Amino acid sequence: MNQTLTGRLAPSPTGAQHIGNARTFLIAWLSIRSRGGKLILRIEDIDSPRVKQWAIDQAIEDLTWLGLDWDEGPDRPGHHSPYLQTERTSGYRSMIEELKSQEMVYPCTCSRSDVLAAASAPHELHSKGKSSLADAPIYPKRCAYRSAGRIDQIATPFSWRYRTSTHSIQFHDQVFGLQKTIPAVTLGDFVVGKSDGSTSYQLAVVHDDHDMEVTEVLRGDDLIPSTFRQLDIYQFLGWKPPQFVHVPLVVGEDGRRLAKRHGDTRLSFLRENQVSPLKLIGWLAASCGWLDRPMEIAAADLLPLFNLDVIPRKPAVFDAQALDFLQGP
After folding, report:
1. Which residue, 1, 67, 124, 318, shows the most beta carbons closer than 10 Å to its own?
2. How far apart are CA 44 and CA 268, in angstroms?
3. Does residue 14 come out as left (phi exceeding 0), alpha (psi in the -120 to 50 range) or beta?
4. In angstroms, rounded to a whole number, what is the distance separating the alpha carbons of residues 315 and 174?
5. Helix 19-33 to helix 53-66 angle, to the nearest 10 degrees?
């Protein structure tokens, strides 16, 4: 496999991109560009019920407004096309067929409410239903006895669940250091596809990062649980995983993830209100420790200042003072 340093910007068009997304995109862009690497823009649009078509074009406009570029993408076809996940589904289906042939997945007829109810039941193995690492209730393996080859016996819609590893999986995060867990204990079996042929995020990103020869995945630290799930799949398939880097999110003054309650932090809103992208880049850079105070600066001018080691290990806080800076003269 080509070992050219390759990163990716992978917005999900389920809504507008906001200041928190911009911070992660900026760090990912600088990490690759500061070392002369290549960037791919991939649109992760397989979450079909929530995907907004307008959000695809808007995400590209937002990234361009920020001064972040890429070498391949929907508007710049190259060797790794196509760049919308909805156009890459044949590869996902092949991957699920491989997992089925090895009995690494099983058909699960449990609904979301079934899983929630089981997680709260005191007699289940995981009495609390959720570990400190898990980002969702741990599935109690009620359908794990089923074989992938006996779906003819199932009359109702079902999901394909991946049989998670019972051994420890670990990786070295360039921001948070050594991370390790036993997926079967802390995360549980997870969905990789459905009987209607649709695919989950967990499987799609493993396929695409491998197929696009991505060597570095930089994203928010809320996705550390997903990294373990994806590494589990990488290990089973014998594929070399990329280097994973996780960075803290942006939160409001109340310590919670950015949302409407914190005001309008959409990049499109800032653009429409003539906020300078140089100001936003400057605030983001200061929040990462590369500037001693917010100031107007272009993303490209941060290349010599980029340093993962100085990024604070706690969330960046977007507060009234930050808003005043962006909206000020």
Report:
1. 318
2. 19
3. alpha
4. 16
5. 60
Question: From CA 70, how far away is CA 55, in angstroms rounded?
Answer: 18
- What does the alpha-carbon distance between residue 139 and residue 157 come to, in Å, rounded to a whole number? 18
Q: Cα(83)–Cα(70) distance, rounded to whole angstroms?
A: 12
* Cis preceding linkage at 82, omega within 30: yes
128 vs 223, higher pLDDT: 223
The residues near 56 (Cβ < 8 Å, ≥ 6 apart) are 13, 43, 45, 74, 84
Residue 230 lies in a domain: no
- Could you list the residue range(s) of the whole structural domain that residue 11 is in? 6-85+248-327
Query: pLDDT (tens digit, 9 = 90+) per residue, 66-106?
Result: 999 999 999 999 999 999 999 999 999 999 999 999 999 99
- The answer as to whether 217 is a domain residue is no
User: 47 and 105: one domain?
Assistant: no
